[in-house]
Amino acid sequence: MRLIVTLLLAASAIMIAGCDRQKADAPQAPAAESQEAKGVDRSHKGEPAPTVKFKNPDGGDFDLAKFKGSPVLVNLWASWCAPCIKELPTLQQLEQAQADEGKLGVIAVSQDMAPQGSVEAFLGERDIGRFAAYHDADMKLSSALGIQIMPTTILYDAEGKEVWRYVGDLDWTGEEAKKLLSELPTPPSKA
User: Fold this and answer.
1) Where are the alpha helices (DSSP H) in 62-166?
2) Which one-letter DSSP state was computed for residue 58?
3) Angle formed at CA 76 by CA 99 and CA 47, multiple of 5 degrees
């Protein structure tokens, strides 16, 4: 039991360091986690979405394969990550706009180890809405994706293949986000 607790604390420390990597006074952060690391990363383009399970709004098992046939933007965040919290309202606005158009699914998956209810309460206090619903307390999704910095947001096409990932926070209602989202391939028409 002591080993498990130690491992969980070590994993939390690593994730916190990734989130806080934007602080200029963090000398312990490796060069790869410097401010230059923020931005779009296309090095995983074409990789399939992982098949790991996480929790849906009802607490049931869920995986990204459920989006097969539809593009999806997946945000990985945590309640202890200030840049994550800063960008969540803009993701919620994007999700609402996309729901009206029906072009792109948008979900945010909490990587908090706390119970799902505490994550929902955290977001409810900030009026960030239903993004509290998806939860990965075991951080299987971020591990499968090799995520080291939060927030990280990944765009998958309708075939479940990665288009790009954005490392760091972004205003998802702004011009840079619109330009990035315009890179989403248009699926062939079914004539």
Assistant:
1) 82-101, 116-125, 140-145
2) T
3) 85
The identity of residue 56, as a single letter, is N
Chain centre distance of CA 83: 12
Q: Measured between alpha carbons, how far is 114 from 39 in angstroms, rounded to an integer? A: 28
**2-22+35-181 — its CATH code?**
3.40.30.10
> pLDDT by residue (tens digit) across 118-151?
888 888 888 886 665 689 999 999 999 999 999 9
The secondary structure of residue 186, as a DSSP letter, is P
Burial class (CB in 10 A: 0-12, 13-18, 19+), 182: exposed
Angle between helix 82-101 and helix 2-19 axes, rounded to 10 deg: 80
Domain boundaries, the chain: 2-22+35-181
Confidence of residue 106 (pLDDT cuts 50, 70, 90): very high
